[in-house]
Amino acid sequence: MEKTYLSDSGPKISPAVYGFYRWGNSDLTLQKMDSIVSLCLELGINTFDHADIYGGYECEELFGQVLKSKSVKREDIVLFTKCGINLPHPSRPEIRVKYYDTSREHILKSLDNSLRNLRTDYIDIFLLNQLDPLSDLDETARTLQKLRESGKVKNIGVVNFSVFQHQLLSSYLRVPIVTNHIELNLLNTSAFDNGQIDYMKQKYMRPLAMAPLGEGKIANSIEKKPLLIRRKLEELSLKYNANIESIAVAWIVKLGALPLIGTTNEQRIRNIVSAFDVDLDRQDWYDLYDASREED
Q1: DSSP symbol at 253
Q2: How open is the CA angle 206-121-141, to the nearest 5 degrees?
Q3: Alpha-carbon distance 275 to 268, whole Å?
Q4: Catalytic residue among 21, 54, 100, 240, which?
Q5: pLDDT of amino acid 70
Q6: Active-site residue 54, yes or no?
Q7: What is the model's pTM?
Q8: 3-class DSSP assignment, residue 244
Q9: 179 with 127: CB under 8 angstroms?
């Protein structure tokens, strides 16, 4: 896959990104991690999205072990990781409830843990996972800037920030925010209505589209809207000689967004990558968009 710039400030990444946000206990084996990472590299995906909490706080360490065993240079891999959400888990008995924390202390501690677990001395894109209303934003921004100046963090991003939150953090930073991870698929087009898409275009950045297949609902749900969209996709699959999932992701790609893959199903990963071979014409794109706007 030909690499693309994430924003006008960089960096270059693969046009599809693999993320570990849906990994559960049954996935957390070295064999599974090695299989998924190997498939991604085979398909040209060199960009991987982590967070300290993914896989019950275990995914980063597993990934680091697998990457160490492969003959892949660190500079040929692009790593995202993030912090900000704290989740109750047996390995974290001190956490009683889900809560946010983007204080200086938490950011530094989380980043150091991620660097150790991923077996690297820098993160290509470090993201705040949600905005913590209790943190001192000036302190948060200064912490991020110092990490960038130190070389431990090359770029800064955010996750699920509204337009106002995005603008707010940007006002405290002297460096650009290079991405905002948002949910975007044919079952969730709210980013058009709340201004996220428009604002990212204004800032010359590519949206990272989480759940590009609606967590599998586009292909499997029997609810009204997924069924309607699936019928449209099935019609188009004949025209474009492509899997319906490839066409659903091609709809995202047509926007200039980058799919953030979360599935552990290897065929589904291949279907998403195949989306880049599908060039939907304008009328077909709008036909799907109209279907996505139908009331449930």
Answers
A1: H
A2: 55
A3: 11
A4: 54
A5: 85
A6: yes
A7: 0.95
A8: helix
A9: yes
